[in-house]
Amino acid sequence: MKRILIVGAGGQIGSELTRNLRDIYGDNNVVCSDLRQLTGPIYERGPIERIDSTQIMQIVDVVKKYNIDTIYNLAAILSATAELNPMLGWNVGIGSLVNCLEVARIFNCAVFTPSSIGAFGPSTPRDMTPQDTIQRPATIYGVTKVTGELLSDYYFTRFGVDTRSVRFPGLISNLTLPGGGTTDYAVEIYYAAVKGEKFVCPLKKGTFMDMMYMPDALDAMINIMEADPSKFIHRNSFNVTAMSFDPEIIYNAIKKYVPDFEMVYEPEPIKQAIADSWPNSLDDSCARKEWGWNPKYDLDKMTVDMLTTLREKKEKGLL
What we know:
Number of helices: 12
Number of domains: 2
């Protein structure tokens, strides 16, 4: 049975990953950690540790205490927030990764670290972006992701550390509110629809980006870590995607079920510039061939599930 440490478990991905991993591997075999104190039923099902991931000895102590063999490193400052404080974005994104890789080298752990479509830039082919292509990002977030991919490959080839990663598109969740990402509008728009509010879109019509529903993202993280590595040609990092749309398309998908829903455009310069530097769509054929990637949700199926879940939360007074 795996003994797993989630670093950065308090974020949008970490809270849901904690639940899923504990369902699979058992509550006591999954340690969740974050810089802030973690509270709530998801976390309190099993061990909780407070870790500043930029401090390597704090990671070492927890790995030794619980005999950890797998690390999910989720510590990062998201794209739009990192642009407001680039050094914080660098120090958290790369400092945490280097520490996790060093700990993994010493204690023989496997490491998963998510990359992103942010690893691409304006010179990258925009449509069906290939697995192997130009990566010249225009944001500090993207720079940390490219650096992370290279470092993870280096630790695999140089030291034999079992590093694995996927390049996530925008992630849409009905459990955890977004935290400063460029693609967060695709979460916020559902909340506005359920609350009966007019949505102010921070991106222009025609701004296409790849997206994925969180259940598929969780499957991607777990499945790649369970995959047979003998079939890997790539490791760090695989393109994965489920759908591509612009604000108008997701708005119309929601209007099918919320006919009175309204949206207006008020583009935010930083977010728009970041979105314009990212691909319109990704080619994820390598992930499909090398470890069986196969998303379950398209835009309509996701929309139905998001609206149903958020309406239930609203009825319970949780929105």
